Amino acid sequence: MKKLNRREFVAVSVAAAGSGLVPRVAAAGPRAEPVLRRSDVVFMYQADRKVYDEYGATVLAWGGVPTPRTLQEARGIRFFGSVGMVTEFARYYERFPQTYEEGLCRDVFGKPVKVPWLTDMQHKGVPFWWCCTNQPRFRSYVRERVVETVKAGAYGVHIDDHMGTAGSLWLGVCFCDRCVEGFAAVQAGHADFRAEALKWAQAHGGKAESVTQHPLWPQWTIYQCRAAAGFMMELRKLAAETAGHPVPIGENAGLLWPRHLSDYKAVDLFSAETDHGADKRQWIDTPLVAYRLADAVGRPYAATASGGDWAFVKANNTPGLVRGWIALGYAAGHCLMAPHHQWCYTPEKGTHWYDGPSEKFAPLYRFVRANSNFLDGYESHADLSVVMPHASFVQNPARWTALFDRLSAANITYRILLAGDEIVDHPLSESQLRTANLLVANATDLLPPDSKLVAERQRRGGVFTDVDEAMRAVRPAVRIEAPSRVLALPRVKPGSAVIHLVNRTYDAKADGETPLHDVKVTVDLSTLGLKRAGTCRWVTPDSPAVELPIADGLVTIPTMGLWGMLVV
Ligand SMILES: [Zn+2]
Question: Around ion ligand 1, which residues have CB less than 5 A away?
Answer without folding.
Answer: 132, 134, 174, 176, 179
